Amino acid sequence: AQKVTQAQTEISVVEKEDVTLDCVYETRDTTYYLFWYKQPPSGELVFLIRRNSFDEQNEISGRYSWNFQKSTSSFNFTITASQVVDSAVYFCALSELGYGGATNKLIFGTGTLLAVQP
Amino acid sequence: SQTIHQWPATLVQPVGSPLSLECTVEGTSNPNLYWYRQAAGRGLQLLFYSVGIGQISSEVPQNLSASRPQDRQFILSSKKLLLSDSGFYLCAWRDRGPNQPQHFGDGTRLSIL
User: Fold this and answer.
1) Does A11 touch chain B (CB under 8 A)?
2) Do A7 and A24 meet the contact criterion of CB atoms below 8 Å apart?
3) Among A68, A103, B21, B47, which is 20 to 30 Å from A95 by CA?
4) What local confidence, expressed as pLDDT, does residue A37 receive?
5) What are A12-67's pLDDT values in tens digits?
6) Which residues of chain B make contact with A108, given a CB cutoff of 8 A?
7) What share of chain A is helix, strand, coil (3-state, %, to 5)?
């Protein structure tokens, strides 16, 4: 069965520290998609990145970077030089393809609460 | 550009009262639509999804129902609310295609008294 595990429940760092959020997934599909979302205190989920199972290139976007390793079924997220505005809950998600991808239900991890202290 | 509107933002309802939460999407057509509930403790639970008008799939048995009367309108309802229905409800949409991400509304915080 598909599953996403975010073992870190809460992380607290001081501003300017680097922090890595772990995500481990399980799936029997050969084609799948992985996502990261950010949920700030205001509540809305903000899409950050998607990655398909055939693309293992790491990606960098400003202070954010993602490390996708199929061999370990991991899709980790690193924030460099963290800032107070990065404080949020971060969710990793796996896309389950149903009937040709029509439904694309997302399987979410339980989230990691990141607190960046000034 | 596409936008998603969800209302109300907060709602306090007594046990046994009815519920109607509305979600509309603009700037796209024939989207997939989703309702999630997020209870305290952060986990996101998929309640319903819809791939077209009048097509609703329920993920978990519960006291809630969903309807899609128009292409870009998704409604979450209940005839009689329970205390356990309290939570944060999120609507989401996505374009067709296997790699399209879901985009979420701002959520409705529902408290049952």
Assistant:
1) no
2) yes
3) B21
4) 96
5) 999 999 999 999 999 988 888 999 999 999 899 999 999 888 888 888 889 999 99
6) 43-44
7) 5, 55, 40
Instruction: Say if the Cβ atoms of A102 and B57 lie within 8 Å.
Output: no
Q: What confidence category does residue A98 fall into, taking pLDDT thresholds of 50, 70 and 90?
A: low
Cross-chain CB nearest to B107 (options A44, A102, A105): A44
Q: How far apart are CA B86 and CA B84, in angstroms?
A: 5
The size of chain B, in residues, is 113
The identity of residue B56, as a single letter, is I
Q: What is the pLDDT of residue B92?
A: 96
Please, are residues B68 and B52 in contact by the beta-carbon 8 Å criterion?
yes
- What are the φ/ψ torsions at residue A84 (nearest 5 degrees)? -55, -35
pLDDT at res. A59: 85
pLDDT at B38: 92
Q: Which residue of A has its CA nearest to B9?
A: A43
Contact assignment for B88 to A43 by CB distance below 8 Å = yes
Residue matched to tokens 């309108």: B73
Task: Answer whether B39 touches A (CB < 8 Å).
Answer: no
